[in-house]
Amino acid sequence: MLSMRTETDPSGKTHRLPSQMSHLVATIVLMFIPARSMGNMILATRYCIALAAMAALVSLFAFGIIHFSDFLSPSDSWDWADELAGWTVCVVFLGGSLAALAWLKQWVSNPSFNSAAALATTTLLIVMVREGGVIQLKEVYLIMLIGVTITNVVCFTVKPVSATTRLQGSMTKTLDGFSTLLDILCSTFLLKQPHAKENRMPLAQAVKAHGAAFKSLSANLAEAKHERVIDPRMRGVKLELYDAALGSMGRLAQHLAAMRSSTRLQEALLHASRGGRINFEQVEKRSSHHVADSVIYELGDLPSVSIEEEADVEQSLQLFRKLQCMTGDDLDRLVARCDDALDAIEQVMGAESKEDTEEADVPGTRSAVAKALHDFSRSSGRAIKEIYAGPRRSKGIFDLETDSSSSDEEEEQRQPLPIAGKDDDEDGPNEVIFLVYFFLFTMEEFAQELLFLLGTVNEIIDSPRVSARDQLRSIIAPWRKPHKKKVNFLYKQFQKLVPIDPSKLQPPLFPKTQRHEQGTLLNPTRASMTFRQQLSQLLWELGTRLSEPDLRYAIKTGLGGAILAAPAFSEKTRPFFIDYHGEWALIMYFGTMSKTVGQTNFLSFIRTVGTILGGVVAVIAYKLFPQDPVALPIFGFLFSLPCFYIIVQKPEYRLTGIFVLLTYNLTCLYSYNMRDHNLSPATIALKRTACIVGGVVWAAFVTRWWWPFTARRELRMGLGDFCLDLSYLYSRLVTTYCRGVEPTRGPNDGSASSGSPDLPTERTALLARATPASVEHHLSRDVLEFMAMEIHLQGQLGELRGLLGHAKNEPRLKGPFASGFYREVLLSCERILDRLHSMRCVATRSEWDQSIRQAFVFPVNKQQREMAGSIILYFYTLSAGFRLRLPMPPYLPPAEAARERLVDAIRELDVVKQRRVSRGGRHLLFFAYALAMQEVINELDYLGGLLQDAYGVITTRGGVRDFDELFVGGPGDGDEHLHHTHLAFDSSFHFRSAAS
Question: In what ranges is there compositional bias, type Acidic residues (predicted)?
Fold first, then answer.
């Protein structure tokens, strides 16, 4: 059935010859994996069709070259024309095709595309190497068609898996994890026992779900979108609504990560309690709140954390207790409403009927969250202002000026709450309260983002149904869409929210993360050059592009494949190559070639082990059931069950299962097909193993010695780029701090602030009825750019963690790779990003206005410039240290000293010394920003210490301590900024400790 070759018997009748490649059907089924989702199968089939067409065109061109050479030299002997044609096919068509497929694999970066690329490679190599002509090409494509058809039929008929259902399940699991983390974070913040919740997700799974919010959900959505023709849940505007919902969930994950790093005061209080400096029991007698023992136990293994030196620990506890009394109940209610909202979204995502969706009551839940957020914003703002004013409030300083953001009802509710402690703190504000400032603001941002998510989910529920015919018509002829009334959906403001490299937002005249930027002193613009100089620059740009990692990987993959296939196009070596089926080595070479040396080594080991194991099992099976057409398929079915279980359920060992089955199919089925040629399965298995080992060894050699792309080096260079991008993000934050953001509301909008949203009802429109040009969104363009920059940096962290995983597979003769060092560096970088996110949530609030900025920020601009410059210099020093791997300076930028001078200057301002909270206390935001920079500087000091320990210090004898001792003994020797390293701790320690 699968053969295209025929023979004529002596009587003149034509008979088909049995196909010797029918085992490829099983190979294709294995590569496509019927257990994938329907959306993934549709995508893989589309990729297969496109790449099969490309392979057919390349094969036909190669056949044309060979036939043209036969036309030039019709003799049967091997001459120069055949030699030239063979090398042209080998280098240009075969090598060029492998290079193009290798580059496309990196560009598309999709497992479905990799499956289709493997099939296209198999087709090209079998047809070109064996020079089978059009007949063999048709036979291979018939086999491919049957294999793909079988896979699709099984996928869509035998327990089909819906990618849309999987997406909704992943969203439900992620939201459940958000609910668990939110409850634990707020309970930790209030030092209370977490609320007992039925069917609560375990803590370890919650942390994993939180980490998956940035990547796995996007992959599930990409698969679900391909089901829009067969699944009504993914049609019409719902495609964009799900995009917006997943983007919102990613921002919720960012807020949770920022809240993790905003519990510094609680950590200090717990450590002080363990050290005996304070006694919670004495405070509990004067407070209705109880400090949960479980929280203290969960945080028992934390490293020591200190508060500001001028803040007394006992007074800090009293201040925190007062904050609990004033805003703890409202925070509990807000967390409860947010939990209800997350549960409602989970119920909608898992709803099987319209009644289940209506039971969730998304509009009512949204109104409840808005009301709870309004109450929490009011109480937290009042609490912070009163605690900030301190005991002097009772002397009338608090009420010197009118609070424009407060209502008369709030004025009546204001009563002086006594603070147990000293009254000698009148020279400055109660600054310890700012340690919890960012948690409260990030909690508000979380609730506001949750309101947007609820609105998006409500639009998903109310969106009109689209028929399969209309959806198919929109795909085939998108220009013929019926005219519909424009609707201003909430999601439209996030349609262009794509990850932005922070360095891309800088002025083009300055070098970014890339060197050789035009328009600088060293590289003039093209307009100022002569024609010859412009031509030289074009050639230089072409060479620069060819030297980039993706093209280097593609070029060496293509040329390496051409070199490995060269024996097939030589008259002397071709018989040996064909006898050993050298195309197997080529297929294995292409599948093993990876961008990094570590990943190639790992794939080489996995494929070699899988090949040996599969070959041994195939030989044993064929010896037990020789040429048995019944027992062999049954044995193959039973043997494939554990292999497919590993492929589907154990993604980290997926390749092992695939190559065990590939070798088993090739050896056992090929032996059965060649049973008339007296080929033993042991011989086939040995040839298969020899080819696999040859392809794997050649791939490892090419990867290691030809333009090596080591994961160790790329991890180090990537960390340098990441630190530089953090400096761009921080500089953008400083710009916002000094100049503000664009307004987010129109002039006719009467709302006071983003912290006090209007209370919507079920009939309240999600957006005001206005023309598209006049619609104002609740997030400004600057905020969206900040979010996009943070998403880009989160993606960079994921890539760096992947490189760290590959680095351990690279051999290192001078000693084991320092995985722990780089793991700590990545954790510290993640903590810096979380803290910058918290500060962004404060710096982009609507309360920042120009009048407050002129009265509060401009007078201390000199100190602000010194601190910002020191921090940017610190980022630059760390970036250079990672990239150069040279000894570090013994004296790193004095960022902490600059910050302390800024804080001292702020304390000298009249508005701070008198603790005025006029105009809503908006100037407190500036003070909180300056104090919170200590968290970022501590991490920078820690990273600097790590690099000094790793790469050494520029001194003649000892390290940093010896350098500092050189300058001890002079006047003011106690004021120098000495380097101080602190223990690193994971930002997710709350969750890990509780899970353990």
Answer: 400-412
Helix (H) / strand (E) element for 7: namely strand 6-8
| 441 exposure class (CB count in 10 Å sphere: 0-12, 13-18, 19+) | buried
- Provide the 3-class DSSP secondary structure of residue 758: coil
- Domain segments of the chain as ranges: 1-161, 181-263+323-406+430-478+488-494, 506-547, 722-745+797-965+979-995
Determine the residue type at 387: I
Q: Under a CB-based contact definition with an 8 Å cutoff, are residues 681 and 668 in contact?
A: yes
Q: What is the 3-state secondary structure (H, E, C) of 700-748?
A: HHHHHHCCCCCHHHHHHHHHHHHHHHHHHHHHHHHHHHHHCCCCCCCCC
Q: Give dist(CA 88, CA 66) in Å, integer.
A: 9
Rounded Cα distance, 331 and 324, in Å:
9
Bridge partners, residue 6, by sequence: 16
**Fold type of domain 181-263+323-406+430-478+488-494:** Methane Monooxygenase Hydroxylase; Chain G, domain 1 (1.20.58)
Provide the pLDDT for residue 234.
80
User: Any idea which of 221-225, 322-326, 943-947 has the lowest mean pLDDT?
Assistant: 322-326
pLDDT in tens, 752-768: 333 434 444 444 433 33
Dist CA 100 CA 551 (whole Å): 9
CB within 8 A of 845, min separation 6: which ones? 441, 753, 754, 755, 925
Find where tokens 């309260």 sit. Answer: 433
Q: Which of 589, 607, 612, 812 is nearest to 701 (CA)?
A: 589
Q: Among candidates 434, 579, 462, which has minimal Cα distance to 130?
A: 579
What is d(CA 547, CA 583) in angstroms, rounded to the nearest whole number? Answer: 29
Find the DSSP H helices in 89-202. 96-108, 111-130, 133-157, 163-190
Instruction: Judge whether 143 and 28 are in contact, CB under 8 Å.
Output: yes
Both tokens assigned to 645: 């279980």
The residue whose two tokens read 């696999």 is 692
CB-based contact 450:346 (threshold 8 Å): no
Residue 901: Cβ within 10 Å count: 17
> Which sign does the torsion angle of CA 894, 900, 905, 911 carry?
positive
Q: At what angle do helices 133-157 and 111-130 cross, to 10 degrees?
A: 160
Residue 153 near residue 83 (C-beta atoms within 8 A): no
Cβ contact 370:337 at 8 Å = no
**Closest to 460 (Cα-Cα) out of 672, 245, 669, 666:** 245
- As a whole number of angstroms, the distance between CA 430 and CA 423 comes to 11
- Left (φ > 0), alpha (ψ -120 to 50) or beta: where does 982 sit? beta
737 pLDDT band (50/70/90 cuts)? confident
Residue pair 193/164 in contact (Cβ under 8 Å)? The answer is no
CA 686 to chain centre: 43
Residues contacting residue 555 through CB under 8 Å, at least 6 positions apart: 99, 546
pLDDT at 43 over 80: yes
Question: If 0-12 CB within 10 Å is exposed, 13-18 middle and 19+ buried, where does residue 78 land?
Answer: middle
Question: Contact at 8 Å (CB) between 55 and 125?
Answer: no
Q: CA angle, 670 as apex, 669 and 673 as ends, to 5°?
A: 90
726, 826 in Cβ contact below 8 A?
A: no
Q: Model confidence over 619-643: pLDDT tens digits? A: 888 888 888 888 888 998 898 898 8
For residue 710, report the phi and psi dihedrals to the nearest 5 degrees. Answer: -80, 140
Q: Which two tokens stand for residue 418?
A: 């006594």
Q: Do the strands 14-16 and 6-8 form a parallel or antiparallel pair, or are they unpaired?
A: antiparallel
Residues contacting residue 911 through CB under 8 Å, at least 6 positions apart: 855, 856, 923
> Can you read off the two tokens belonging to residue 597?
């040396």
Q: How far is residue 228 from each of residues 38, 103, 239, 715, measured CA to CA in Å?
A: 11, 29, 8, 39
Could you give the CA distance from residue 122 to residue 97 in angstroms, rounded to a whole number?
Answer: 12
Closest listed residue to residue 947, CA positions, set 723, 726, 642 = 723
